[in-house]
Design brief:
This protein is an alpha+beta fold and about 180 residues long. Helix content is about 30%, strand content about 15%. It is built from six helices and eight strands. The chain binds iron/sulfur cluster.
Length: about 180
């Protein structure tokens, strides 16, 4: 797999259908169970906004640094991988991830993260609105573009007293492309 490819998230395009969660859990665990998905949809009902949370495969991942068990690595192919055998379910990686994109598998009680499906992500294939796309731009600008949409949307969600006009940008009715 090409180094540092990743999934670009465009929150404005996400309808919150959650097909991505279902197809991810089906691919990884052969069951339709959003709680076992490596992508999760964060819903903000007040503003009709849905933001997919998925690993951004950071260049220097904080999750890797946070794991005292050595269970997480940034592979030579550029994606973040968790060794299930080494995971002790301490959840430090979940706390460390700035994108809230590492989850606990409620069945195996191990941390789980997107592994890009070996370069052909199921969520990207099945997303009906192209809110998730595979981006192969390996440049700094490409990586920044990949994360900026999510960072901005999540920043807004964390601020409760924000002007409505900020939210308007993310409302589906204002979608321009
Ligand atoms: S499949 Fe696409 S549109 Fe549906 S919830 Fe997931 S990211 Fe959003």
């Amino acid at each position: 797999m090409e180094a540092n490819i990743g999934i670009q998230v465009i929150p404005e395009k996400c309808t919150g259908c959650r097909i991505c969660e279902l197809i991810c859990s089906a691919g990884k665990h052969e069951e339709f169970n959003p709680k076992r998905s490596r992508v999760r949809i964060v819903k903000e009902e007040r503003f009709f906004i849905d933001i997919p949370s998925i690993c951004q495969h950071c260049l220097n991942p904080l999750c890797v640094k946070s794991c005292d068990s050595g269970a997480i690595e940034k592979t030579k192919d550029g994606y973040v991988a968790i060794d299930q055998e080494k995971c002790i379910a301490c959840e430090e990686c979940i706390t460390a991830c700035p994108f809230d994109a590492i989850f606990m598998d409620p069945v195996d009680n191990k941390a789980i993260v997107c592994d890009l499906c070996q370069g052909d992500p199921k969520c990207v294939q099945w997303c009906p609105t192209e809110a998730l796309t595979l981006q192969k731009d390996n440049s700094t600008a490409g990586r920044k573009k990949r994360t900026s949409n999510v960072k901005e949307a999540r920043r807004l969600i964390k601020r409760w007293k924000i002007p409505m006009e900020d939210w308007e940008r993310y409302h589906p009715k204002n979608k321009t492309d």
